[in-house]
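Example 3.2
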Amino acid sequence: MRHVLVNWLLNAVSLIIVAAVVPGIEIAGFGTALIAAVVIGFVNATLGLFLKIVTFPLTLITLGAFLFVINALMLKVAAALLPGFRVRGFLPAILGAILLSLVHILLRSLL
């Protein structure tokens, strides 16, 4: 249980950092970041999983780079579902997906 809560908080902090760095990604506050972390996780576990299975051949051909496109789409879907979380355009979504992964890995390694 502790692991889940720590991971949730790290995802929310990662979202705040990404929103501060990437122009075009806006988040209303830490509460919104906490909810957005849950929504992103849910969207990734459902729609994201389906898309990753369907696009596996393309992901294989691109050596995994297409996963960033899928993650960007999941950010856009989560932003569409949650007021207070905006992703304005596909380029900020791509940059946000890449940076979100890197920041989360960095924060996780610091713990």
